[in-house]
């Protein structure tokens, strides 16, 4: 980050103009550095929703919303999806570089040998209702890890941070798969360390003790790519939640649990589930115009789920990759005529020709096709956001660690614009 030779001059009625430095990033928008503003002027800035505010500096992920570009540590998402496995990407996000062959072997071995949960954690599942939403179970189970793994607790120590990262990345698939098995009343499947990260997850989700489960390699590859596409996404709501929680030096399991809670919302990671429900509700291409009309009606709360993005104002590169994965998976499963996929393509086509969506630069986002592909793979709707959370955990952990190591970081403490009742006295009794 460089300080520009340009300066922002702020003129406030009745006060001397003040100069504010401008910071220049490697890519993206210059930022006016307002850290000294309150001290110099007694004024705060107001930016509910962080529309114009950078909450931190970061070296991990970059999004160019106008060009539809997503980079992890400088590498375009398309190249990573084509050439790397998810665990390469996890290593990249954490360490800043892709692993060489030796580093990869060591990393994969470590992850594979930390996939089991403490047996007491496994018993915690019994405390949940069978019909609990698996995201609710995940919030609880991931938070509960902090009750079990607290011996490596000094986060100024790199070894302790690495242990936490490896543990949480290794155990998330087990936690998610067990939440699913619990919900359908099937026995938990313990991890198989001879399988890849994605294949082992499929084994734990779909295998039973009665017969050996052999994951389909096309589906394994698709799932691994889905993990890569969801691995990180800059300072979105859940990542900011993880950072804010971690800014108090809370332990990473608690922070990730907070991130999972935030991701669950339908405006964020819950959109894939909401999108599939929407497509099922629309049901037929003939009803698309009715739903497009509703999405445009300001008096109707309905929105086209899987459409629009705060940052992408051209297209979401993940959505393009996801559309291809979707086509590959449907072909493999001989579901090319899947009516929901056809409906989704048609809805996308009609929306993209509509002035309302064109003017507002609303395009399909990553969640638009991910529900269809996951459903085709046999993953139930309620598990979609869990899989998003599983993948995003590597990004959250990388962001958490970056914040811990940032010498400029302080506990997050936004200010507010108070608009409540002015000071008053309690009436005499
Ligand atoms: N359907 C209909 N209209 C929309 C939609 C939509 N999906 N998204 C935005 N708009 C309209 C909105 O009504 C507003 O119109 P106007 O200017 O006339 O008031 C305009 O577009 C701008 O919308 P906004 O709500 O100010 O934009 P935002 O940046 O605050 O919201 C969003 C971004 C993703 C929350 C929103 O587009 C949305 O709710 N989309 C549907 C949910 C969804 O798919 N979420 C997944 C996001 S991608 C996955 C992730 O990273 O979590």
Polypeptide structure, described:
With 429 residues, this protein is mostly helical. Helices cover 51% and strands 7% of the residues. It is built from 18 helices and six strands. Helix 12 (271-282) crosses helix 17. The mean pLDDT is 94. The chain binds carboxymethyl coenzyme *A. Carboxymethyl coenzyme *A binds at residues 233, 236, 267-269, 271, 295, 303-310, 360, 362, 365-367.
Topology (SSEs and partners):
Elements: E1 2-10, E2 18-24, E3 31-32, H1 37-41, E4 61-64, E5 69-72, E6 75-76, H2 77-83, H3 86-95, H4 101-112, H5 119-124, H6 134-148, H7 158-184, H8 197-206, H9 217-230, H10 237-246, H11 252-263, H12 271-282, H13 288-296, H14 317-332, H15 339-353, H16 355-359, H17 367-376, H18 384-405
Antiparallel strand pairs: 1-2, 2-3, 4-5, 5-6
Helix pairs in contact: 3-18, 4-7, 6-7, 6-11, 7-8, 7-18, 8-9, 9-14, 9-18, 10-11, 10-18, 11-18, 12-17, 14-17
Bound molecules: carboxymethyl coenzyme *A (CMC).
Spell out the key features of this protein:
single chain, 429 residues, mainly alpha, 2 domains, three-stranded antiparallel sheet, binds carboxymethyl coenzyme *A
